[in-house]
Amino acid sequence: xxxxxxxxxxxxxxxxxxxxxxxxxxxxxxxxxxxxxxxxxxxxxxxxxxxxxxxxxxxxxxxxxxxxxxxxxxxxxxxxxxxxxxxxxxxxxxxxxxxxxxxxxxxxxxxxxxxxxxxxxxxxxxxxxxxxxxxxxxxxxxxxxxxxxxxxxxxxxxxxxxxxxxxxxxxxxxxxxxxxxxxxxxxxxxxxxxxxxxxxxxxxxxxxxxxxxxxxxxxxxxxxxxxxxxxxxxxxxxxxxxxxxxxxxxxxxxxxxxxxxxxxxxxxxxxxxxxxxxxxxxxxxxxxxxxxxxxxxxxxxxxxxxxxxxxxxxxxxxxxxxxxxxxxxxxxxxxxxxxxxxxxxxxxxxxxxxxxxxxxxxxxxxxxxxxxxxxxxxxxxxxxxxxxxxxxxxxxxxxxxxxxxxxxxxxxxxxxxxxxxxxxxxxxxxxxxxxxxxxxxxxxxxxxxxxxxxxxxxxxxxxxxxxxxxxxxxxxxxxxxxxxxxxxxxxxxxxxxxxxxxxxxxxxxxxxxxxx
Amino acid sequence: xxxxxxxxxxxxxxxxxxxxxxxxxxxxxxxxxxxxxxxxxxxxxxxxxxxxxxxxxxxxxxxxxxxxxxxxxxxxxxxxxxxxxxxxxxxxxxxxxxxxxxxxxxxxxxxxxxxxxxxxxxxxxxxxxxxxxxxxxxxxxxxxxxxxxxxxxxxxxxxxx
Lengths: 516, 161
What we know:
Chain A is mainly alpha-helical. Chain A is built from 21 helices and two strands.
């Protein structure tokens, strides 16, 4: 071979080599760089991950106050727990005692192990917070209404999944906190026995015992329980939650994007001059649609229906929310360590044995009667929340904060009613005791059924029915009910977290706890 | 299903269902019931038939100095043993509320988790516990006591040699 033949071939080779990075990017994007409306659209629908979004996004959806990015922050926290969870699985061993040792290894020996575990724990906590706030946002902007009723139900299933993921993760460290929280949790699952025992039918019909058996795989919290909780935590629940999230996000688009008020154009006004590109290839010609469209002729100089290209407007906003989520989790992980108590001891309960904070409201109710507090009232609350979009068929106020009959003044008043009722009933129960202290001979079934939470639920229910009548509007009743539910949750959780000490007795401050 | 012009589409109409529809419906329903049956079979697996917990019967010896009404808790067991003039008896220390381990006190038992209190015979005196603490079957073989944590006996059953 001669040099003259090699020359152009080698140059071509070098040229291709130089161009390889650019060509790689081009081939990855498939439709080229997103610089025009057309290529921006291609950027969205040509990408398997991004094409859950629509190509153009309504300006209303991009306002910070529409969603506050709460749903996306929840997804972000979930993704963070996925990544850190897989990392923790490198070292974690799901077997009693060994599990505790591996947790200590992760905490003290594994490089960055403590940091990664802290992030995992904080992301899980953040996910619970944002999922509740996201639910409140959707409720108060009346975004659950037709055609989005079903997605509200999917969202509720995701709330349950989030709590389930947290609860199953709680056992894995196999320390005192974990062991006794799960013992209590498993016995709550068994608490329908309180009813079947009272009716004397446990020997033939025992759903409580079956639930506990399925959860623990044994009659005590042991190796079988640990491997079951591990399986649920790292495999079953994440898969189900992931599938539900895909449906949840896909339905947003299929249900017509985020909920918008009917007069959205008037509220938004014309797009500001600085927003570029609103619609770079806007039609310059007036369409002659006068026969079908009322008002001025549409679509001259701005995009249809107040939309802007998702790339870059939506994606940069989403990226900002995701980065903020990562930042919050890592910052908290640097400041505060995830707890690890002493090795689980099946004979000496932790005193007080407290569940994670988001279950302490339930634990407060369970301290009066297990079945009603742990299963009855949560079921009633979930059923009530699930029914809301099917009962509220109104249209006024959709997409607006505190929209609908009553509005913010009603929410403010419901806050007062909800907080007052919860505080009053709790004060009575704490100061004067509950049914068994008043009537020692009372049948067990009455104690099981009439929990302070039962009274609270009845008061809230009665109040919201009264609101429906007063305002002649289901939305008013729903606003009252949901606000009261949030109040009850906050009051009970706060009392359970800060004001309950050893033997679940009331203390104004942990400093007053008796030493042990 | 064939549909001719003017014919109603709804199955709710009182017209006789064409044979092909009957067969189609039969196929769908048999598939649905097969899936349901298979799901039931799969759910049968996680329901443990054998419980891998340690043996529930154990032997122990009461200390000679045990006073009437004073509790003796054998190491590693959730049981309180008593001995008085009428005989020996065992009370389970697993709280009937949510399964925490109750502590024997001077006048009965108290639960650290949700504040249930029990009298010396196990009866509920305060708190959310739905039932009295269980009395367990005890048998004496000389000085040795055999306790069966799975066998409950009526409250007040005391055993003498």
